[in-house]
Protein backbone atom coordinates (compact mmCIF):
# COMPACT_ATOMS: atom_id res chain seq x y z
CA UNK A 1 0.00 0.00 0.00
CA UNK A 2 2.83 2.32 0.91
CA UNK A 3 4.63 1.41 -2.31
CA UNK A 4 1.53 2.13 -4.38
CA UNK A 5 1.07 5.44 -2.60
CA UNK A 6 4.69 6.36 -3.31
CA UNK A 7 4.17 5.40 -6.96
CA UNK A 8 0.98 7.41 -7.35
CA UNK A 9 2.09 10.52 -5.44
CA UNK A 10 5.80 10.87 -6.09
CA UNK A 11 6.17 14.61 -5.51
CA UNK A 12 6.82 15.83 -2.03
CA UNK A 13 5.28 19.08 -0.82
CA UNK A 14 2.35 18.92 -3.21
CA UNK A 15 -1.08 17.56 -2.39
CA UNK A 16 -2.25 14.59 -4.50
CA UNK A 17 -5.05 16.78 -5.91
CA UNK A 18 -2.62 19.52 -6.82
CA UNK A 19 -0.30 17.00 -8.45
CA UNK A 20 -3.00 15.38 -10.57
CA UNK A 21 -4.55 18.72 -11.45
CA UNK A 22 -1.21 19.76 -12.89
CA UNK A 23 -0.87 16.47 -14.74
CA UNK A 24 -4.36 16.91 -16.15
CA UNK A 25 -3.52 20.43 -17.32
CA UNK A 26 -0.35 19.19 -19.03
CA UNK A 27 -2.29 16.34 -20.68
CA UNK A 28 -4.94 18.77 -21.95
CA UNK A 29 -2.26 21.12 -23.25
CA UNK A 30 -0.61 18.25 -25.12
CA UNK A 31 -3.95 17.21 -26.64
CA UNK A 32 -4.68 20.82 -27.58
CA UNK A 33 -1.25 21.06 -29.25
CA UNK A 34 -2.05 17.89 -31.22
CA UNK A 35 -5.42 19.26 -32.35
CA UNK A 36 -3.94 22.61 -33.39
CA UNK A 37 -1.06 20.96 -35.23
CA UNK A 38 -3.45 18.63 -37.05
CA UNK A 39 -5.98 21.43 -37.61
CA UNK A 40 -8.41 19.04 -36.08
CA UNK A 41 -11.26 20.22 -33.94
CA UNK A 42 -12.77 17.06 -32.49
CA UNK A 43 -15.84 18.77 -31.05
CA UNK A 44 -17.35 20.44 -34.12
CA UNK A 45 -17.93 19.48 -37.70
CA UNK A 46 -19.15 21.47 -40.62
CA UNK A 47 -22.88 21.80 -41.08
CA UNK A 48 -23.95 22.81 -44.55
CA UNK B 1 8.54 20.35 -7.20
CA UNK B 2 11.18 18.46 -5.20
CA UNK B 3 11.37 14.77 -6.01
CA UNK B 4 12.40 12.27 -3.44
CA UNK B 5 16.18 12.12 -3.61
CA UNK B 6 16.37 9.18 -1.27
CA UNK B 7 16.68 6.11 -3.47
CA UNK B 8 14.70 4.11 -0.93
CA UNK B 9 11.99 6.77 -0.98
CA UNK B 10 11.48 6.68 -4.71
CA UNK B 11 8.68 4.69 -6.25
CA UNK B 12 11.29 3.23 -8.57
CA UNK B 13 12.94 1.81 -5.52
CA UNK B 14 14.15 -1.31 -7.27
CA UNK B 15 15.95 0.51 -10.03
CA UNK B 16 17.07 3.23 -7.67
CA UNK B 17 18.75 0.74 -5.42
CA UNK B 18 20.63 -0.70 -8.35
CA UNK B 19 21.57 2.79 -9.42
CA UNK B 20 22.54 3.75 -5.86
CA UNK B 21 24.82 0.75 -5.59
CA UNK B 22 26.61 1.80 -8.77
CA UNK B 23 27.05 5.49 -8.05
CA UNK B 24 30.54 5.43 -9.45
CA UNK B 25 29.11 4.45 -12.83
CA UNK B 26 28.16 7.70 -14.69
CA UNK B 27 25.64 5.88 -16.88
CA UNK B 28 23.83 4.51 -13.86
CA UNK B 29 23.92 7.93 -12.25
CA UNK B 30 22.36 9.44 -15.38
CA UNK B 31 19.64 6.79 -15.31
CA UNK B 32 19.02 7.53 -11.63
CA UNK B 33 18.65 11.24 -12.40
CA UNK B 34 16.16 10.47 -15.15
CA UNK B 35 14.04 8.12 -13.07
CA UNK B 36 11.87 10.81 -11.44
CA UNK B 37 11.18 12.32 -14.87
CA UNK B 38 10.29 8.89 -16.27
CA UNK B 39 8.02 8.37 -13.29
CA UNK B 40 6.11 11.61 -13.96
CA UNK B 41 5.93 10.87 -17.72
CA UNK B 42 4.49 7.45 -16.92
CA UNK B 43 1.83 9.00 -14.68
CA UNK B 44 1.11 11.58 -17.38
CA UNK B 45 0.60 8.77 -19.88
CA UNK B 46 -1.77 7.05 -17.48
CA UNK B 47 -3.77 10.28 -17.13
CA UNK B 48 -3.94 10.64 -20.93
CA UNK B 49 -5.08 7.05 -21.34
CA UNK B 50 -7.73 7.67 -18.67
CA UNK B 51 -8.96 10.79 -20.56
CA UNK B 52 -9.04 8.78 -23.79
CA UNK B 53 -10.96 5.92 -22.22
CA UNK B 54 -13.44 8.33 -20.65
CA UNK B 55 -14.07 10.02 -24.04
CA UNK B 56 -14.49 6.62 -25.73
CA UNK B 57 -16.91 5.49 -23.01
CA UNK B 58 -19.01 8.66 -23.36
CA UNK B 59 -19.00 8.35 -27.17
CA UNK B 60 -20.10 4.73 -26.87
CA UNK B 61 -22.87 5.44 -24.37
CA UNK B 62 -24.13 8.67 -25.95
CA UNK B 63 -23.16 8.51 -29.64
CA UNK B 64 -24.98 11.74 -30.47
CA UNK B 65 -23.49 13.93 -27.80
CA UNK B 66 -21.25 15.57 -30.41
CA UNK B 67 -22.17 16.79 -33.90
CA UNK B 68 -22.25 14.35 -36.77
CA UNK B 69 -18.87 12.96 -37.77
CA UNK B 70 -18.62 13.24 -41.52
CA UNK B 71 -17.29 10.23 -43.30
CA UNK B 72 -18.06 8.99 -46.80
CA UNK B 73 -21.47 10.61 -47.14
CA UNK B 74 -19.72 13.86 -46.22
CA UNK B 75 -18.57 14.06 -49.83
CA UNK B 76 -22.16 13.93 -51.06
CA UNK B 77 -23.06 16.85 -48.80
CA UNK B 78 -19.93 18.73 -49.80
CA UNK B 79 -20.80 18.24 -53.49
CA UNK B 80 -24.44 19.31 -52.92
CA UNK B 81 -23.25 22.52 -51.25
CA UNK B 82 -20.84 23.28 -54.11
CA UNK B 83 -23.59 22.75 -56.69
CA UNK B 84 -26.09 24.94 -54.81
CA UNK B 85 -23.52 27.73 -54.38
CA UNK B 86 -22.51 27.50 -58.05
CA UNK B 87 -26.16 27.73 -59.11
CA UNK B 88 -26.30 31.01 -57.26
CA UNK B 89 -22.96 32.43 -58.41
CA UNK B 90 -22.23 31.03 -61.86
CA UNK B 91 -24.84 33.02 -63.92
CA UNK B 92 -22.69 36.15 -63.41
CA UNK B 93 -19.66 34.30 -64.83
CA UNK B 94 -21.73 32.89 -67.70
CA UNK B 95 -22.81 36.41 -68.62
CA UNK B 96 -19.13 37.30 -68.90
CA UNK B 97 -18.60 34.36 -71.26
CA UNK B 98 -16.88 31.97 -68.87
CA UNK B 99 -17.72 28.32 -69.41
CA UNK B 100 -18.74 25.99 -66.63
CA UNK B 101 -16.61 22.87 -66.39
CA UNK B 102 -17.55 20.23 -63.82
CA UNK B 103 -15.15 17.57 -62.62
CA UNK B 104 -16.77 14.29 -61.57
CA UNK B 105 -14.93 11.29 -60.23
CA UNK B 106 -13.58 9.52 -57.19
CA UNK B 107 -10.51 9.93 -55.02
CA UNK B 108 -8.00 9.43 -57.86
CA UNK B 109 -9.37 12.48 -59.72
CA UNK B 110 -9.99 14.51 -56.57
CA UNK B 111 -6.47 14.07 -55.26
CA UNK B 112 -4.97 14.81 -58.68
CA UNK B 113 -6.75 18.11 -59.30
CA UNK B 114 -5.48 21.56 -58.44
CA UNK B 115 -8.43 23.69 -59.53
CA UNK B 116 -6.66 27.01 -59.05
CA UNK B 117 -3.73 25.96 -61.18
CA UNK B 118 -5.99 24.60 -63.91
CA UNK B 119 -8.12 27.77 -63.93
CA UNK B 120 -4.99 29.87 -64.33
CA UNK B 121 -3.59 27.66 -67.08
CA UNK B 122 -6.85 27.78 -69.04
CA UNK B 123 -6.62 31.60 -69.05
CA UNK B 124 -9.67 31.91 -66.78
CA UNK B 125 -11.92 30.79 -69.65
CA UNK B 126 -13.65 28.28 -67.35
CA UNK B 127 -15.12 28.10 -63.95
CA UNK B 128 -14.02 24.73 -62.61
CA UNK B 129 -16.49 23.05 -60.28
CA UNK B 130 -14.86 20.19 -58.35
CA UNK B 131 -17.47 17.54 -57.61
CA UNK B 132 -15.37 14.45 -56.97
CA UNK B 133 -16.17 12.21 -54.03
CA UNK B 134 -14.83 8.87 -52.88
CA UNK B 135 -15.66 5.22 -53.39
CA UNK B 136 -14.60 2.07 -55.19
CA UNK B 137 -17.00 1.91 -58.15
CA UNK B 138 -18.46 3.86 -61.04
CA UNK B 139 -21.92 3.94 -59.47
CA UNK B 140 -20.50 6.02 -56.60
CA UNK B 141 -19.77 8.84 -59.06
CA UNK B 142 -23.38 8.94 -60.21
CA UNK B 143 -24.74 8.66 -56.66
CA UNK B 144 -22.55 11.35 -55.17
CA UNK B 145 -23.04 13.85 -57.99
CA UNK B 146 -26.84 13.42 -58.12
CA UNK B 147 -27.29 17.02 -56.94
CA UNK B 148 -25.75 18.28 -60.19
CA UNK B 149 -28.41 16.50 -62.25
CA UNK B 150 -31.23 17.66 -59.96
CA UNK B 151 -30.17 21.25 -60.38
CA UNK B 152 -30.66 23.99 -62.96
CA UNK B 153 -26.90 24.25 -63.39
CA UNK B 154 -25.87 23.39 -66.94
CA UNK B 155 -22.16 22.71 -67.33
CA UNK B 156 -20.66 23.21 -70.77
CA UNK B 157 -18.00 20.59 -70.20
CA UNK B 158 -17.97 17.64 -67.81
CA UNK B 159 -14.76 15.74 -67.18
CA UNK B 160 -15.38 12.33 -65.63
CA UNK B 161 -12.13 11.03 -64.15
CA UNK B 162 -12.13 7.28 -63.59
CA UNK B 163 -9.86 4.28 -63.38
CA UNK B 164 -10.70 1.37 -65.64
CA UNK B 165 -10.91 -0.94 -62.61
CA UNK B 166 -13.79 1.08 -61.15
CA UNK B 167 -15.96 -1.38 -63.08
CA UNK B 168 -15.47 -3.78 -60.17
CA UNK B 169 -17.54 -3.39 -57.04
CA UNK B 170 -16.35 -4.88 -53.74
CA UNK B 171 -18.68 -7.50 -52.35
CA UNK B 172 -19.19 -8.60 -48.75
CA UNK B 173 -16.85 -11.55 -49.44
CA UNK B 174 -14.13 -9.15 -50.53
CA UNK B 175 -14.50 -7.15 -47.34
CA UNK B 176 -14.31 -10.41 -45.39
CA UNK B 177 -11.19 -11.49 -47.31
CA UNK B 178 -9.53 -8.14 -46.60
CA UNK B 179 -10.44 -8.47 -42.94
CA UNK B 180 -8.99 -12.02 -42.82
CA UNK B 181 -5.75 -10.78 -44.29
CA UNK B 182 -5.40 -8.15 -41.59
CA UNK B 183 -3.08 -9.22 -38.80
CA UNK B 184 -4.55 -9.25 -35.34
CA UNK B 185 -2.89 -7.12 -32.70
CA UNK B 186 -1.48 -10.24 -31.03
CA UNK B 187 -0.09 -11.66 -34.28
CA UNK B 188 1.52 -8.35 -35.16
CA UNK B 189 3.03 -8.14 -31.69
CA UNK B 190 4.42 -11.68 -31.94
CA UNK B 191 5.95 -10.91 -35.34
CA UNK B 192 7.42 -7.61 -34.14
CA UNK B 193 5.41 -5.81 -36.85
CA UNK B 194 5.55 -2.31 -35.35
CA UNK B 195 3.33 -0.79 -38.05
CA UNK B 196 0.45 -3.17 -37.46
CA UNK B 197 0.88 -2.94 -33.70
CA UNK B 198 0.60 0.83 -33.75
CA UNK B 199 -2.30 1.04 -36.22
CA UNK B 200 -5.00 -0.51 -34.00
CA UNK B 201 -3.63 1.44 -31.03
CA UNK B 202 -3.89 4.67 -33.01
CA UNK B 203 -7.44 3.81 -34.04
CA UNK B 204 -8.39 3.51 -30.38
CA UNK B 205 -7.40 7.11 -29.69
CA UNK B 206 -10.56 9.19 -29.44
CA UNK B 207 -8.88 12.35 -30.66
CA UNK B 208 -7.66 10.47 -33.74
CA UNK B 209 -11.08 8.91 -34.36
CA UNK B 210 -12.63 12.37 -34.31
CA UNK B 211 -10.23 13.77 -36.86
CA UNK B 212 -11.87 15.55 -39.71
CA UNK B 213 -11.95 13.93 -43.07
CA UNK B 214 -13.89 16.32 -45.20
CA UNK B 215 -13.74 19.79 -43.73
CA UNK B 216 -12.06 22.01 -41.22
CA UNK B 217 -14.72 23.50 -38.99
CA UNK B 218 -12.47 25.55 -36.77
CA UNK B 219 -10.92 27.18 -39.84
CA UNK B 220 -14.30 27.81 -41.40
CA UNK B 221 -15.60 29.54 -38.26
CA UNK B 222 -12.66 31.95 -38.37
CA UNK B 223 -12.98 32.49 -42.11
CA UNK B 224 -16.74 33.10 -41.83
CA UNK B 225 -16.11 35.71 -39.16
CA UNK B 226 -13.47 37.38 -41.35
CA UNK B 227 -15.87 37.51 -44.30
CA UNK B 228 -18.61 39.05 -42.11
CA UNK B 229 -16.24 41.76 -40.87
CA UNK B 230 -15.08 42.56 -44.42
CA UNK B 231 -18.71 42.73 -45.61
CA UNK B 232 -19.67 44.95 -42.67
CA UNK B 233 -16.93 47.34 -43.78
CA UNK B 234 -18.51 47.54 -47.20
CA UNK B 235 -15.92 45.47 -49.06
CA UNK B 236 -16.62 42.32 -51.04
CA UNK B 237 -14.97 38.99 -50.35
CA UNK B 238 -15.73 35.41 -51.31
CA UNK B 239 -16.19 33.06 -48.40
CA UNK B 240 -13.53 30.37 -48.96
CA UNK B 241 -15.52 27.79 -47.01
CA UNK B 242 -18.70 28.08 -49.07
CA UNK B 243 -17.16 29.28 -52.31
CA UNK B 244 -18.25 26.76 -54.97
CA UNK B 245 -14.93 27.14 -56.79
CA UNK B 246 -12.85 26.13 -53.78
CA UNK B 247 -10.34 23.31 -54.06
CA UNK B 248 -11.64 19.80 -53.63
CA UNK B 249 -10.79 18.08 -50.36
CA UNK B 250 -7.33 16.60 -50.45
CA UNK B 251 -6.75 13.96 -47.83
CA UNK B 252 -3.49 13.91 -45.98
CA UNK B 253 -1.28 11.43 -47.75
CA UNK B 254 2.48 11.10 -47.50
CA UNK B 255 4.62 12.07 -50.45
CA UNK B 256 5.49 8.41 -50.77
CA UNK B 257 3.79 5.53 -48.97
CA UNK B 258 5.91 2.80 -47.42
CA UNK B 259 6.55 -0.48 -49.18
CA UNK B 260 4.28 -2.17 -46.64
CA UNK B 261 1.41 0.15 -47.59
CA UNK B 262 2.02 -0.61 -51.27
CA UNK B 263 1.93 -4.33 -50.57
CA UNK B 264 -1.24 -4.06 -48.48
CA UNK B 265 -2.93 -1.94 -51.13
CA UNK B 266 -2.04 -4.40 -53.88
CA UNK B 267 -3.29 -7.28 -51.72
CA UNK B 268 -6.55 -5.44 -51.12
CA UNK B 269 -6.95 -4.81 -54.88
CA UNK B 270 -6.18 -8.46 -55.47
CA UNK B 271 -8.95 -9.42 -53.03
CA UNK B 272 -11.29 -7.16 -54.95
CA UNK B 273 -10.31 -9.25 -58.00
CA UNK B 274 -9.24 -6.16 -59.91
CA UNK B 275 -6.42 -8.14 -61.52
CA UNK B 276 -8.66 -11.01 -62.62
CA UNK B 277 -9.82 -10.72 -66.27
CA UNK B 278 -13.10 -12.52 -65.37
CA UNK B 279 -14.10 -9.53 -63.21
CA UNK B 280 -14.54 -7.39 -66.30
CA UNK B 281 -16.93 -9.87 -67.90
CA UNK B 282 -19.12 -10.16 -64.82
CA UNK B 283 -22.68 -8.80 -64.55
CA UNK B 284 -21.44 -6.44 -61.83
CA UNK B 285 -18.99 -4.82 -64.25
CA UNK B 286 -21.76 -4.49 -66.80
CA UNK B 287 -23.97 -2.86 -64.18
CA UNK B 288 -21.22 -0.39 -63.27
CA UNK B 289 -20.61 0.52 -66.91
CA UNK B 290 -24.35 0.99 -67.38
CA UNK B 291 -24.35 3.44 -64.50
CA UNK B 292 -21.53 5.41 -66.21
CA UNK B 293 -23.37 5.37 -69.55
CA UNK B 294 -26.58 6.58 -67.88
CA UNK B 295 -24.68 9.39 -66.17
CA UNK B 296 -23.03 10.49 -69.43
CA UNK B 297 -26.39 10.34 -71.24
CA UNK B 298 -28.10 12.49 -68.61
CA UNK B 299 -25.33 15.08 -68.77
CA UNK B 300 -25.38 15.15 -72.57
CA UNK B 301 -29.15 15.66 -72.59
CA UNK B 302 -28.54 18.81 -70.55
CA UNK B 303 -26.19 20.06 -73.25
CA UNK B 304 -22.86 19.23 -71.68
CA UNK B 305 -19.90 17.94 -73.62
CA UNK B 306 -18.59 14.95 -71.67
CA UNK B 307 -15.01 13.69 -71.70
CA UNK B 308 -13.93 10.52 -69.89
CA UNK B 309 -10.47 10.86 -68.39
CA UNK B 310 -8.71 7.62 -67.48
CA UNK B 311 -6.58 8.60 -64.54
CA UNK B 312 -2.81 8.09 -64.21
CA UNK B 313 -1.74 4.93 -62.41
CA UNK B 314 1.43 3.62 -60.85
CA UNK B 315 3.31 1.33 -63.28
CA UNK B 316 2.79 -1.69 -61.01
CA UNK B 317 -0.97 -1.16 -61.08
CA UNK B 318 -0.95 -0.69 -64.85
CA UNK B 319 1.01 -3.91 -65.20
CA UNK B 320 -1.44 -5.88 -63.06
CA UNK B 321 -4.83 -4.66 -64.30
CA UNK B 322 -5.65 -6.81 -67.36
CA UNK B 323 -6.06 -5.02 -70.73
CA UNK B 324 -9.61 -6.35 -70.96
CA UNK B 325 -10.66 -3.71 -68.39
CA UNK B 326 -9.82 -0.86 -70.76
CA UNK B 327 -11.26 -2.76 -73.75
CA UNK B 328 -14.57 -3.34 -71.98
CA UNK B 329 -14.79 0.29 -70.91
CA UNK B 330 -14.25 1.62 -74.42
CA UNK B 331 -16.55 -0.97 -76.01
CA UNK B 332 -19.32 -0.19 -73.51
CA UNK B 333 -19.11 3.53 -74.27
CA UNK B 334 -19.23 2.87 -78.01
CA UNK B 335 -22.11 0.42 -77.78
CA UNK B 336 -24.06 2.28 -75.11
CA UNK B 337 -23.81 5.76 -76.59
CA UNK B 338 -23.13 5.15 -80.28
CA UNK B 339 -22.37 8.39 -82.07
CA UNK B 340 -22.60 10.27 -78.76
CA UNK B 341 -19.79 8.24 -77.19
CA UNK B 342 -17.55 10.73 -75.37
CA UNK B 343 -13.86 11.06 -76.17
CA UNK B 344 -11.68 9.01 -73.82
CA UNK B 345 -8.54 10.76 -72.65
CA UNK B 346 -6.27 7.91 -71.61
CA UNK B 347 -3.70 9.31 -69.16
CA UNK B 348 -2.91 6.01 -67.42
CA UNK B 349 0.81 6.27 -68.15
CA UNK B 350 1.06 10.05 -68.12
CA UNK B 351 2.95 10.30 -64.82
CA UNK B 352 6.13 8.78 -63.37
CA UNK B 353 6.01 6.47 -60.36
CA UNK B 354 7.66 9.23 -58.30
CA UNK B 355 4.48 11.28 -58.76
CA UNK B 356 2.43 8.78 -56.75
CA UNK B 357 1.79 8.77 -53.06
CA UNK B 358 0.48 5.21 -53.20
CA UNK B 359 -0.60 2.78 -55.88
CA UNK B 360 -3.48 4.86 -57.22
CA UNK B 361 -3.26 8.38 -55.76
CA UNK B 362 -0.83 11.07 -56.81
CA UNK B 363 1.28 13.11 -54.41
CA UNK B 364 1.78 16.88 -54.42
CA UNK B 365 4.16 16.81 -57.41
CA UNK B 366 1.83 14.45 -59.26
CA UNK B 367 -1.13 16.76 -58.61
CA UNK B 368 0.69 19.71 -60.16
CA UNK B 369 1.89 17.61 -63.12
CA UNK B 370 -1.57 16.15 -63.76
CA UNK B 371 -3.32 19.51 -63.41
CA UNK B 372 -0.94 21.08 -65.92
CA UNK B 373 -1.51 18.20 -68.31
CA UNK B 374 -5.29 18.29 -68.01
CA UNK B 375 -5.41 22.09 -68.28
CA UNK B 376 -3.53 21.89 -71.57
CA UNK B 377 -6.26 19.58 -72.93
CA UNK B 378 -9.33 21.41 -71.56
CA UNK B 379 -9.19 24.24 -74.09
CA UNK B 380 -9.53 21.70 -76.91
CA UNK B 381 -12.79 20.40 -75.47
CA UNK B 382 -14.49 23.76 -74.91
CA UNK B 383 -17.39 24.44 -77.29
CA UNK B 384 -17.32 27.10 -80.02
CA UNK B 385 -20.43 28.83 -78.72
CA UNK B 386 -21.31 30.99 -75.74
CA UNK B 387 -21.77 29.26 -72.38
CA UNK B 388 -25.06 27.35 -72.05
CA UNK B 389 -26.18 29.55 -69.19
CA UNK B 390 -25.27 32.84 -70.89
CA UNK B 391 -28.70 33.21 -72.54
CA UNK B 392 -31.42 35.58 -71.23
CA UNK B 393 -33.55 32.69 -69.99
CA UNK B 394 -30.91 32.11 -67.35
Describe the protein.
The complex is a heterodimer of chains A (48) and B (394). Chain A has 48 residues and is mainly alpha-helical. Chain A has two helices and no strands. Chain B has two domains: 7-61; 73-172 and 241-390, SGNH hydrolase (Rossmann fold, 3-Layer(aba) Sandwich). Chain B is built from 17 helices and five strands. A five-stranded parallel sheet of chain B has the order 2-1-3-4-5, sandwiched between helices. The longest helix of chain B is centred in the N-terminal third of the chain and has 36 residues, at 26-61. The termini of chain B are far apart. Chain A binds chain B through residues 3, 6-8, 10-14, 20, 23-24, 26-28, 30-31, 34-35, 38-48, and chain B through 1-4, 9-11, 13, 36, 39-40, 43-44, 47-48, 51, 66-70, 77-78, 80-81, 206-207, 210-212, 214-221, 241.
Tell me the span between the first and last alpha carbons of chain B: 73 Å
Sheet bearing the most strands of chain A, described? none
User: What string gives the helices and strands of chain B in order?
Assistant: HHHEHHEHHEHHHHHHHEHHEH
End-to-end Cα distance of chain A:
55 Å
Could you give the order of strands across the largest sheet of chain B? 2-1-3-4-5
Low-confidence stretches of chain B: 4-11, 213-218
Mean pLDDT of chain A: 79
As residue ranges, the low-confidence spans of chain A are none
Overall geometry of chain A comes to elongated
List its traits.
heterodimer, A: 48 residues, mainly alpha, 2 helices, B: 394 residues, alpha/beta, Rossmann fold, 5-stranded parallel beta sheet, 17 helices, globular
Amino acid sequence: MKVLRRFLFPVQGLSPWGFYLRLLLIALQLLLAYCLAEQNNPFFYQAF
Amino acid sequence: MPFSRDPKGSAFFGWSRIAANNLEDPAMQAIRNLLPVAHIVLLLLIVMIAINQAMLAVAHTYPDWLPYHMEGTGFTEDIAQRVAAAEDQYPRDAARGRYLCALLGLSSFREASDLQLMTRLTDDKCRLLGLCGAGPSLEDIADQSASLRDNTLRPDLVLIGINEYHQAKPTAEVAAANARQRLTFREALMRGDVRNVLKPLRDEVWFYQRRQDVSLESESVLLNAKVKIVHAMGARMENPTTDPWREMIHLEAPQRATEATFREQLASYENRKLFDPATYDSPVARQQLDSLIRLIGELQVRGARVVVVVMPEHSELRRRVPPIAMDRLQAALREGLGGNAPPVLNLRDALDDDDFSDISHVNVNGRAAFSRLLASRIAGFLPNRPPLMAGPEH
